[in-house]
What does this fold into?
Amino acid sequence: MADDVQPQNDETPDTEQLEEPSTEKAPGEEPKGGTTQPEPDHEAVGIGVVGGPQIDEDAGE
It folds into this structure.
């Protein structure tokens, strides 16, 4: 594959289009969505079943 991408039908953007400001916002300016769920009062440490047996499959016998 070629890395240089050419516009189709010889359509090149004019200078005004190239000078348009970005519509992306800085991370601090992004809108925050409202949370409907309260924050958990615990911290997830790993993947597993709480209260289940802890089996180390890599240990081998």
About this structure: The chain has one helix and no strands.
